[in-house]
Amino acid sequence: MGSKQRPIPTLSLSSPTRSFVDDDRAIEGLPIRLVIALIVGVMSLGIMLQMLGGIGDFGTKTEVDLEFQDENYISEGDTDSFTVKVVDENDEGVPEATVIATAGSARMDAVIGETGDDGEADFDFEDVELPPDADTGSIEFEIEPPTDSDWEDGEPNNELTVVTDG
Predict the structure, then answer these.
(1) Neighbours of 4 (CB within 10 A)
(2) Where is the composition biased (Acidic residues) (predicted)?
(3) Does residue 57 fall inside a structural domain?
(4) Of 3, 8, 61, 125, which residue is 20 to 30 A from 103 by alpha carbon distance?
């Protein structure tokens, strides 16, 4: 029948008679259980990755943004209260968020506000000053959503413009 007889390997410490270069058995020498385990493992991993890829919003958070209730500017010497609203992607108020107002190009101390149930926070900008020889400036806002929520502030927020009195 033309089958080729293979020599029986012998163990010799002094001179090896076979090498990997001469081995033409391919995976025949591997245990079959290892090959089956490898194939089943790769197939299982592929199925799990496909299932995870099919879930739309797995682990994503909702972006929050800042809206101004009145104008988007204040005057340099204005001491009136200014209201901002923290909203989610559906324009609904975000309660219990911390809003931090810091100096952009205007000069001021940081002011911290907390939103109520309606998502609104009031600020009193008392000591806002513009730099010398500047007609406008800006106040920047940072939002810290409640820690136990699915909200995040990853995008830049609107800035409040500060203008001169006159």
Answers:
(1) 5
(2) 144-156
(3) no
(4) 61
pTM: 0.60
Q: Say how many residues make up the chain.
A: 166
pLDDT tens for each residue of 15-65: 556 666 666 666 565 677 788 889 999 999 988 888 777 655 555 678 888
Output the six-digit token pair for 158: 């609107």
Q: Which domain holds residue 143?
A: 62-163
- Does residue 109 lie within any of the structural domains? yes
Residue 118 included in any domain: yes
Whether residue 2 has pLDDT greater than 70: no
Residue 159 token pair: 């800035």
Q: What is the CATH number for 156?
A: 2.60.40.10
Query: Sheet holding 111-114: strands in order across?
Result: 73-75, 160-163, 136-144, 98-103, 111-114
When divided into structural domains, the chain yields a total of 1
> Per-residue pLDDT averaged across 67-84, rounded?
79
Q: What is the pLDDT of residue 1?
A: 54
In a 13 Å sphere around the CA of 156, the CA atoms on its Cβ side amount to 6
- Domain for residue 79, yes or no? yes
- Tokens at 17, concatenated: 């008679």
- Of 75, 72, 73, nearest to 164 (Cα)? 75
Which DSSP symbol is given to 152?
Answer: E
